[in-house]
Structures are given as structure tokens and as C-alpha cells.
Design brief:
It is built from 12 helices and 10 strands. It is α/β, with parallel strands linked by helices and 425 residues long. The chain is elongated and about 80 Å long. 31% of the residues are buried.
Length: 425
Amino acid sequence: MGTDGSDPHSASNNGATSGTWIGCVINFFTGQSVVVKVFFCLYLLTFCIILPLTCSNLEFSLYRQIKPLPINVQLDKQLNEERLKQAYQSLTSMVLNSSSVLQNEIPYMVVSIVTTRRKSLKNYDPKYLIQAATTFDKLIKRWNEMNMEKKIHLSLCNVDLRPLDHKDVLNISRLLNLKVNTHYATSKSSADADNVFEKEKRDYIYCLEKSLQTNASYVLMIEDDTLPHTDLFNVLPHVLDFRLTFLKKQSTECSDQFLYMKLYHPKSISTYLSKEPNRIPELFSLGFLIGAFMVRLNMCLTTMSTKQLYMTWLCSFLYVILVVIAVGRPNLLELRRISKFLYNVVPAPSCCTPAMVFTQKGGNVVINYLTKVHCARNYGKDSAIDTLRQGSSHGLKAFYIEPNLVQHIGLVSAVRLRDKDPYVS
């Protein structure tokens, strides 16, 4: 026993154990091939230095240091006020242009903004319609000026319980010279009088029917708390006119008359760890493709034996898989915005309906189905549409364009009287 009460044998054992571990690590590292040593350094540099520094504040990254917080209502309201200020500035400088008005000719596409008044428990009016209508109007006018043969028309669909009290509709339709379809809702039974989910479904049916009556090739249904990406009308017509035509030529099962096409899916459920069947194959495809490129690069730089070749491919494959998971799929999808040719068309996932494109046939199939079902809590119109997608009797497919072509800004729910997270649904 030492003078300070410590056991010298214990200290000696601890030192020996520590030395043994260090020695084992050194022996393991020095005994490995050059390939293992190189990738050990690459992994160490990437996952311990580069990614922590570059991804610490990157949303949906595994390295994100800022933990998810409860809904920051004040911050979202501040952002909303800034967007609203920009919308008002656009209105004051806007010159009336009939390019957005529903005229007699059959349009290529009709954009219908479904709107109702929204007030939270604190009586905050976010005025989403003003933001959505001015932004869509600006993009549509720009498109119509450059595409005379494929006109896009913008209209509003007022589904408020008291339509005449929805002053924003009256003001926006006058300033932007827009057609307004107004749904004067009537409950079919006393049981449905307070069923906001059934009302939402009937409102959607009405607005979709009115838009389809224009005989437009496509109808884009927009909820009023949805803003378009600046590239929306550069990407969407390209996908509808060229990508789907190509898919139709490649497969007899694909038709230009699809059920619907989603333009939005919450980023929070767009990760690789998802029930969507295409996510894991996508992850492994990236590993195979980029891993093969890394092997080829190594072959150009040095001569490798067959064993080293296989080891390089395995290390490269695992490296790519771990990197893309760490960075986050939603962040990698943003790279596709570089060009309209890089946007991906995949089978439609479940959730949600802020922005949906319908063909004439697909729209009528959806209307017929929704008319027959009853919506209630935990089974809203989005769930009903998703149930239809999973069926096969209609023979039509549903698609989704990724990354998202619209942004969901809804902090105040039109169905549930409470604040909500705009990035979830």
C-alpha cells in the first residue's frame, strides 16, 4: 500500500492494460494493407472533422447540433410577416395583365387556389392567400409571356363558410383580375354539420370539378398556405410533356392520364429510413455507383491486386452509404435543383395534399371516389385519396416530383383550430 493509500499493483495493471490496448491498435493498423490504412484515414477525416464542421447546422443531418425545438410560433409569424410585406409590395407595383384571367380558349393548365379564412386561437390572421396568389400570378404571367400556345390560368376557389366575409378573396380577385369559384356549402345531414373533415372533402370536390370544367389538360390544385418554388413552371411542364411521355414509351403500364402527381412531401419523412419502397434501393444504388467510381479512380492512380480491388470497393461502398446517411436525403435532393433534367419522378408517397396535379381522367376518378367515402377525424381527404392510390381498379398510377416544387408555410390550420408545424404536413 502506498503512503497515499493507493495500490501500486492496481496502478501498474491499469498502465499495462492501457499500453496493451494502444499496442493492439498500433499492431492492427501496421499489419493492414495500404487500402485499409488509406480508408481509415479517409473515414477519420470525413466523419470526425469535415462532416461535423460542415453539417452541424444542416437540417436533417445526423451532425445537426441544434436540436429540434417545439414550434417557434413567434419566429414563424415573423417570417410570415416578411413574406406578407413582400406580397403587398408586389401588389402595389403590379400592372394588371389579362394573362391570368380564364378566357374562352382551352388552357394548358388551370391553377386553382383553394382558400378559406384562417385564425388561430390567438386570432392571428396570417393572410396566406395574398402571399400565394401574388407569387403564383407573377410566375404564371412570366410563363404566359414566353409560351403563347400553352397558357396557364389562375383562379381562386372560395370555400369559406361565409364566403362574402372572406375579404382577401374579394380584394385579390379585383387587383389581379382573377376568376373566383365560390362554394356555398350545405350539410347533407345534421351529423355532418360540425364535421370539418367532411366539409374539407366536399370543398375539394367542388373546386376540382370547377377546374376540370375548363377542359384544361392539367389542373393544379393548391391549398392557400402553399408557395411555389421559383422553378415550378420550368420543371412541371417539362415533366408532364417529356418525362411522362418517355416513361409511356418505355412501359405499356404508364399512361399520360395519371391519377395525380404530388408536388410536395414533408422533408421530415423524406429520409432513407422510411416505409417508402424506393428509399433503400436508392441508397444502395448510390453506394454502388459512387463506390464503383472511387474504385475506378484508384485503379487509374495505382496498381492493385484482386484482393485489394475487392477491399477498395467494399470500403468505398460503405463510405458512400455512411456519408449520404449522415448528410441526410432531404439535403442531397436539393442538388437536383441544378437542372430541370435532374428532378426525379417516383411513385407517389402517402401524405400530403398542398399541391396536386390532376389530368381530366385522373381528376374524375378522384371525384367519383371521394363522393362515395365519408371523411372524419383521422380520415381526412388526404387519407381517402391515399386509399384510392393504393387500389388498382382505376388502372392509373400516382407520381411525385422530387425535390418539392412548392413550400408549405401553414402555421394556422384551416381544419384544426390550433397552431401547427408547417414543415410536417
